[in-house]
Specification:
Blueprint lengths: L1 H25 L9 E8 L17 E8 L11 E2 L8 H4 L23 H5 L17 H7 L1 E11 L9 E13 L7 E11 L14 E12 L5 E14 L3 E14 L4 E12 L1 E3 L2 E5 L2 E9 L5 E9 L4 E11 L3 E11 L6 H6 L1 E10 L27 E4 L1
Antiparallel strand pairs: 1-2, 2-3, 4-5, 4-17, 5-6, 6-7, 7-8, 8-9, 9-10, 10-13, 11-12, 12-18, 13-14, 14-15, 15-16, 16-17
Length: 395
């Protein structure tokens, strides 16, 4: 049985990697879906009702929009100026890029060189460029816009391992977000993660020579600040851990931050246990984590975050997470978190330290991976794993 699970997990992750590598090459774009907005440098001539645009004062130079339409053979037709009644101000030309310019596509708009968003950033999907939804307008299509699938590998260790064991395994799961409704821009999220590890057994005192299987469930509410300002998320995490004993625990996890108009973001996150479990006379308790973080949003659509903090038992905490887009729909995500125990080095410290490392591929079937952070209803918090859901072993 254990060999079968190992084979299935390896096959799943291997297939995920192959799909990520070959998917962009197999994708065929419909040229009629490549309707884009380009900017051009224009000058308002004296007395002209419509030369290069009535948005400029006489003799002033600036940028205005023209529309390019593909023709059936796949090439672009001649530029078609937008008539005054159809003009789209740059600030609203891409509703998914409300921070200005083309930062969500790759590079900021360079007024000094007159470079258009799609000239350098590759915008070219329907309606409003890369950062708009890439599918239709049906219910199923709208659901896919904020749906992601992920799979990868992870290693972790904690007091439950009694200082005798480290865990390695594979995982897979999904995350989904959607608007809750109302004028406040609040969304809800739901996700799950399954972890399969210890394929060769373990060395804990009650070794069962069986795999370790975990199931995480995450659900809650959030508000993403795509225009800058206050961003927050609150979720409820549940863990079912089948190890040498079986335990069920829950925690509340929250994050709040201030998103600036530049790429910087600072904030605070915490996880607090709400339900422990008694296993064979021993208490398995959720470790409360508190951390201050700094997040940087990169020009190519990725982001990285580092944090430092402490636990409810005065242990130190250091960690981070990173997301790098790969092609259109794929991203590489990794995270780590290390609990530095207050106990001295040696047997005591070895028993009490906790850490988790995750590496995974994420597929966004309905949206460009570079634009995830510019969707107001993309989940703010990731599905729980062993780096943010740490368990203590108390005699």
């Amino acid at each position: 049985m254990h060999g079968t699970r190992t084979t299935l997990s390896v096959a799943l992750v291997s297939g995920w990697v192959m799909l990520a590598l070959t998917g962009p090459a197999l994708a065929q774009q419909n040229p009629w879906e490549q309707r884009v907005l380009r900017d051009r440098q224009v000058t308002r001539a004296s007395g002209a009702e419509y030369v290069d645009g009535p948005l400029l004062g006489e003799g002033e130079q600036g940028f205005d929009s023209i529309r390019l339409d593909p023709v059936p053979d796949g090439t672009m037709d001649a530029a078609e100026p937008i008539v005054p009644s159809e003009r789209i101000p740059r600030s609203s030309a891409n509703p998914m890029d409300s921070r200005g310019g083309c930062q969500s596509c790759g590079l900021p708009y360079d007024d000094s060189r007159g470079i258009a968003c799609d000239d350098e950033c590759g915008c070219g999907f329907p309606d409003y460029g890369t950062c708009g939804p890439r599918r239709g307008v049906g219910l199923f299509d709208r659901l896919l816009d904020r749906f992601s699938l992920f799979a990868g590998v992870q290693g972790f260790k904690g007091p439950v391992d009694q200082g005798r064991n480290g865990n390695f395994g594979f995982h897979e799961g999904f995350n989904f977000g959607a608007p809750l409704g109302g004028p406040w821009g609040i969304g809800y999220q739901l996700g799950a993660r399954a972890v399969h590890g210890n394929f060769s057994g373990d060395q804990v005192a009650r070794a069962s020579r069986d795999d370790r299987n975990q199931f995480f469930l995450t659900g809650g509410f959030f508000r993403r600040a795509v225009d800058g300002g206050l961003q927050w998320g609150v979720v409820f995490d549940a863990l079912h851990d089948r190890y040498y004993e079986t335990a069920d625990l829950t925690q509340l996890r929250a994050e709040i931050s201030w998103v600036g108009f530049d790429p910087d973001e600072v904030g605070f996150w915490a996880s607090m246990g709400t339900k422990n479990d008694q296993v064979a006379g021993v208490s398995w308790e959720t470790t409360d984590l508190y951390a201050i973080f700094y997040r940087r949003h990169f020009s190519g659509g990725g982001e990285g975050r580092l944090w430092g903090g402490f636990t409810n038992k005065s242990d130190a905490l250091v960690g981070g997470d990173f997301r790098v887009p790969m092609g259109n729909s794929w991203a590489l995500e990794n995270s780590f978190n290390y609990l530095i125990p207050k106990e001295p080095r040696g047997l005591q410290g070895l028993r009490e330290e906790s850490w988790g490392v995750t590496l995974q591929l994420v597929w966004y079937p309905g949206r460009s991976a570079a634009c995830v952070g510019h969707d107001p209803f993309q989940p703010v918090l990731n599905v729980a794993d062993n780096s943010v859901f740490m368990v203590d072993y108390v005699h």
